[in-house]
Amino acid sequence: MKVTFGSLVISAGICGILSFAFLATSLGTEYWYIIKMNPMNLSDFEDMSSHSGLWSINEGGKTYADTIDSFSADPSRYSETELHMLSMHSAIVLVLPFSLVLLLFGGICGLVSSLARSPVLLTGTASYFFVCSLLTLCGVSLYIIYSYQALAETERLVGQEGLAHIQISFGWSLGLAWLSYCLELLAGILLLIAARMARLQNSSPTVA
Questions:
Q1: Cα 115–chain centre separation
Q2: How much is the pTM?
Q3: pLDDT along the chain (208 residues), means of 10
Q4: Of the candidates 56, 75, 76, 74, which has an alpha carbon nearest to the alpha carbon of residue 65?
Q5: Which of 7, 10, 72, 146 has its CA 20 to 30 A from that of 33?
């Protein structure tokens, strides 16, 4: 089966649209981090099951805004470890939305470069998507590191016994962010192949 220029740019466009949709859904939902109580221990402990997003926490079906504003927090009220975690949270909530905005403009650039069949524009757009994927990867990786450090800090404060009745896991919102990263990377690769194909077509001699 012969791969055409049109099929490459259409596939890249679909990947770009899906990556934007997945990342937007991920940022707008509250299933990045899930905490579940062990049902066997509910008679001894209050049910504190919850799931959280980047800006809010859902407990008992009710959504609450994050109680700590990482941008306006008073440094004198927190330890060095807590300040480090607040800085990481600030970076996460800046990098991921910024990547989403860049994806929107990347789609416009991809459409223009595809219609123009310009190898230079296609290569530039591919590089643009690689930058977007790098930002998404950085944001997601920072969130995972942040979550593990938060868990370690909690375990230090309450001990392993205090967490024995709690099940902690990452949720599908984080999974969507990972899918967005993969699709951004794939879109960039497809556009690079399309740029190479356009360059070869432009350099081919025209038969009279």
A1: 29
A2: 0.84
A3: 87 95 94 77 57 80 61 60 81 93 92 91 95 95 90 75 75 94 96 92 60
A4: 56
A5: 72
Q: What is the predicted pLDDT for the residue at 78? A: 60
Nearest to 88 by CA among 104, 108, 68, 58: 68
SS (H, E, C) 10-73: HHHHHHHHHHHHHHHHHHHCCCCEEEEECHHHCCCCCCCCEEECCCEEEECCEEEECCCCCCCC
Are 82 and 40 in contact by the 8 Å Cβ rule? The answer is no
Tokens of 101: 């905005």
Is beta strand 33-37 parallel, antiparallel or unpaired with respect to 166-170? antiparallel
Q: Tell me if 22 sits within 8 A of 179, measured CB to CB.
A: yes
Residue 169's region, left for phi above 0, alpha for psi from -120 to 50, else beta, is: beta
Contacts of 69 (CB under 8 A, 6+ apart): none
